[in-house]
Amino acid sequence: MIRLPKLLLPLLLLGALAACDQKPTREEQILANLPLQDAYEHNIGRMAALLAMTHPQVPQEQIKVVLRKHLTVEDQRNDLFKLYSEQNFSDAEFDTIVQATQDPAKAKALGETAEGKRLSEKLTGLMRESARDEKVQALAQERMQQVEDELNQSQ
User: Fold this and answer.
1) Phi/psi at 23 (nearest 5 deg)?
2) So which residues are the signal peptide here (predicted)?
3) Residue 21: what are its φ and ψ, rounded to 5°?
4) Residues 28-32, mean pLDDT to the nearest whole number
5) What's the whole-number average pLDDT of the chain?
6) Residue 97 CB coordination number (10 Å)
7) 155 with 51: CB under 8 angstroms?
8) CA pair distance 117, 30, nearest whole angstrom
9) DSSP-based three-state secondary structure for 6
10) What is the pLDDT of residue 54?
11) Closest CA relative to residue 123, chosen from 103, 92, 95, 94
């Protein structure tokens, strides 16, 4: 009977060590390496500036609050998980994208290479494909209608 617990402890330790040695998931890599919050805030700012033109009586900060309510950072995060998934980009391609995102000089140099142009075309194609998806369009339209409705009520 004493033998089973003695064997169980080493097996549990081996299992724990193996789990620690696993590489992070693509989602974990995206969260760790891409400036999601900065990109989200940039997008909200650009959209608020555009909406301020059609809703001049609503303060731009209020427009941002409404946008954040209906277009969440979680939605953008999920979109990026889908876009940069292992299905769409190999580990090497994703690593190249991360490096270009983190270093503007590398991004510029990459843009002048055949690999960079191929990656750019691939990324642009995937984004266009997503934008043409009827479900994506319907969801985006629904969210923007909610934003418009709330801004119209604020007037």
Assistant:
1) -75, 155
2) 1-18
3) -90, -5
4) 94
5) 88
6) 21
7) no
8) 22
9) helix
10) 95
11) 94
